[in-house]
């Protein structure tokens, strides 16, 4: 299939991405404040065709009927490294539960390309859905407040989860990702260079149809989406940001003209679609001069989810 690269080149690309992330991981690994609650592994959580590991953080101050935030790691990352984000610390303040999926295969990226994962019949999307079902059943969590967020491979999986399971995920926050189905392959490869290099250009209607066609008979509401992307991204190129905006605005029934444009910082442009408040249908955050590792702004993501 055009645009795919062989395994060795694909593996080299992943290694290069991992090297580029090294400095960012210092931030992720910052020391944690003292808390009694711990990151806990859950075994036998349900159907797990992707053979993923599941880790959960239940705060000391868990709220009644807590919300659920799924925090999804990057290629060559892990649940324990994603735990370096501040979602656990903020959970102590806001009372939600955090789920951290963990890739266990040698190719440590989430499956955002296979037909099974993209149609919810197998692989990683089904495994993560099982994790959410487990938390809903065993922790009394609120099924109307389930959210996903991730970086890089985790951002791509965030798009997949919202695309496959709009009845489960109410909103997502994707840091340096690509649209749902952009990375699709049909030959067993997990890498699509045509997508990663931003060479797939579809209309908003076509992108929206990809989500709607994955959910025949679903009548909404569709998930809201928050997007983050650096203009100098050299792994998942910046044009993917525009394609994500096109997809999720179309899915949510709004046009591609921003209802508001703000500049929270010198290099940060925030546009909102389908609303101008803190929880619009789509929020897009463009970071000028930033490459593949935009800063993870946990409180901004929780604000968009309506949890902070």
From TrEMBL:
Keywords recorded for this protein, A-Z: Hydrolase, Signal
Taxonomic superkingdom: Bacteria
InterPro entries: AB_hydrolase_fold, Esterase_phb, Plant_Biomass_Hydrol_Est
Signal sequence, renumbered to the chain: 1-29
SUPFAM superfamilies: alpha/beta-Hydrolases (SSF53474)
NCBIfam families documented for this protein: esterase_phb
Full protein name: Esterase, PHB depolymerase family
Organism of origin: Glycomyces rutgersensis
